[in-house]
């Protein structure tokens, strides 16, 4: 930690010093550090930015965490973890005697819902997507891809980033197989790009998804990325944009518990998927 960190350092200055140190060490993935920055600047700095770190108390931290928790347990958890890690480095250099995040309110994790979608619930999801697409909406035309993206996830068990990274050259519609070999990353200062997976895999493609992709192949213009789901400006779609669209849709379905993880479980329960799933490295 920078030697200029003292008990009189403000929280916002500590944020800058800490993030600069993390980037210099290059121990963490850049996307992780970007997320730390987002959490601190959006959730912590608005409340504590001008506060000097020696004035931070467990009571003050509790107040922020309770406020965040009322709106989102996920935001509450992220704020506590990242703020605690940053202040721990101030303790290590002697700028703080005690980390005020220690002993703050306990974060209650909601019990994860591991049930699978029923056939009826799956149809409800599809109907909600169709209804959302038929509404008058502003925003990029790539938003219309959400239905096909979800169908490919349901069919293959691929993650959002893996689906967005698909190229037409990765798909063999004749053999009904997809080569899942990359994911999408977004980093500040770099942008959104396609990153190869350490363990690519071949995934069986059920008939419904094959027909959907076949239709896209006929109607979608060619693009220099060879992307199956490019943006209107022919760039790679960002994962968080797809996640945001799904959150908007599911609020209208009464299925708030349904996450992209549930889509993957639908594929994992498909006997065809289980039988044909294979790793390229043997």
Using DSSP, what is the number of strands?
4
Indicate the low-confidence ranges by residue numbers: 271-282
Fourth-level CATH superfamily of the largest domain = Intergrase catalytic core
Give the proportion of residues in helices.
40-55%
Strand content: 5-15%
Biggest sheet features: 4 strands, antiparallel
Which class of secondary structure composition applies to the elements?
A: alpha+beta
End-to-end separation: 45 Å
- Return the CATH architecture of the largest domain: Orthogonal Bundle
CATH topology of the largest domain: hpI Integrase, Chain A
Major β-sheet strand ordering: 1-2-3-4
The first-level CATH class of the largest domain is given as Mainly Alpha
Shape: elongated
Element pattern in H and E: HHHHHHHEEEHHHHE
Q: Figure out the total of helices.
A: 11
Domain count, please report it: 2
Mean pLDDT: 85
Radius of gyration: 22 Å
Brief account:
This protein is an alpha+beta fold. The protein has helices at 11-25, 30-48, 58-71, 73-92, 119-134, 146-156, 160-164, 207-219, 239-250, 260-268, 271-276; strands spanning 171-172, 177-187, 191-204, 278-279.
Describe the structure in your own words.
The chain has 282 residues and is an alpha+beta fold. The chain has two domains: 11-92, DNA polymerase, domain 1 (Orthogonal Bundle), CATH 1.10.150; 119-279, Intergrase catalytic core (hpI Integrase, Chain A, Orthogonal Bundle). The chain has eleven helices and four strands. β2 (177-187) and β3 (191-204) form a beta hairpin. α3 (58-71) runs antiparallel to α4 (73-92). The longest helix has 20 residues, at 73-92.
């Amino acid at each position: 930690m920078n030697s200029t960190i003292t008990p009189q350092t403000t929280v916002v200055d500590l944020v800058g010093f800490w993030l600069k140190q993390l980037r210099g060490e290059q121990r963490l993935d850049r996307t992780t550090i970007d997320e730390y920055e987002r959490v601190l600047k959006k959730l912590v700095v608005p409340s504590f930015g001008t506060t000097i770190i020696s004035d931070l108390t467990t009571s003050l931290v509790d107040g922020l965490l309770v406020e965040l928790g009322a709106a989102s347990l996920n935001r509450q958890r992220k704020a506590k973890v990242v703020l605690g890690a940053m202040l721990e480095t101030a303790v290590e250099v002697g700028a703080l005697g005690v980390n005020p995040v220690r002993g703050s309110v306990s974060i209650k994790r909601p019990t994860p819902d591991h049930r699978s979608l029923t056939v009826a619930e799956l149809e409800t999801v599809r109907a909600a997507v169709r209804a959302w697409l038929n509404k008058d909406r502003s925003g990029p035309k790539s938003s219309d891809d959400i239905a096909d993206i979800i169908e490919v996830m349901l069919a293959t068990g691929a993650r959002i980033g893996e689906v967005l990274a698909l190229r037409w050259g990765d798909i063999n519609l004749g053999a009904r197989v997809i080569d899942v070999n990359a994911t999408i990353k977004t980093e500040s200062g770099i942008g959104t790009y396609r990153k190869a997976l350490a363990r690519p895999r071949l995934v069986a493609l059920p008939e419904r998804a094959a027909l959907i992709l076949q239709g896209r192949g006929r109607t979608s213009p060619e693009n220099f990325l060879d992307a199956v789901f490019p943006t209107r400006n022919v760039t790679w779609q960002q994962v968080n944009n797809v996640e945001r669209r799904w959150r908007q849709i599911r609020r209208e379905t009464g299925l708030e518990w349904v996450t992209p993880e549930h889509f993957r479980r639908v594929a994992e329960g498909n006997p065809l998927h289980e039988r044909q799933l294979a790793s390229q490295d043997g």
